[in-house]
Design goal:
This protein is of the alpha+beta class. Helix content is about 30%, strand content about 25%.
Length: about 160
């Protein structure tokens, strides 16, 4: 069993429900969720002229190999109705693999750790909630230190799960 960390995001439709459904499908098809962060309401990153996102980080265990994991997560996105219109555009659901254990992968369709972790406040805030002292397997810096140095100043607000 490999420990993995995923980031969920949604800014279309019922965003909280989208994250809840995605978590349920991940638990059913990918592996047991050990921990989940609170929800974070965050300004859109990359393409900023769109609605705010709701984001959440999940830590889980899986027996799937990295490319099998990616395929299963993309199948969940499709099952939920995700359509890829444009890079960083609005989406019903987005599921990113942040970490796959300590592995470092640089494949055409999968880069792990996720290459933008250190540049995204909306990713680092829920990571720091769950694993503040975890060391990035490439950068060799803790999640807390990455957040402290993060250049992203876009709005990111932690919500109680009941607020979202």
């Amino acid at each position: 069993m490999q420990s993995i960390i995923l980031l969920l995001g949604s800014n279309l439709g019922e965003t909280k429900q989208n994250l809840v459904i995605a978590s349920q499908l991940i638990s059913k098809k990918v592996g047991k969720i050990d921990r989940s962060s609170d929800f974070y309401e965050t300004a859109a990153w990359g393409k900023t002229d769109q609605a705010d996102f709701l984001n959440q980080v999940l830590i889980l265990k899986t027996e799937l190999e990295p490319l099998e994991l990616l395929a299963q997560l993309q199948a969940i996105e499709l099952e939920m109705g995700r359509v890829r219109f444009e890079k960083w555009g609005a989406r019903l659901i987005d599921i990113d693999i942040l970490f796959y254990g300590e592995q470092v992968l640089d494949l055409p369709d999968l880069k792990v750790p996720h290459p933008f972790i250190q540049e995204r406040r909306f990713t680092l805030m829920p990571l720091v909630e769950l694993v503040p002292d975890m060391i990035h397997s490439v950068l060799k810096v803790s999640m807390k230190d990455l957040l402290d140095a993060c250049p992203d100043k876009l709005s990111a607000k932690r919500l109680d799960k009941s607020e979202a």
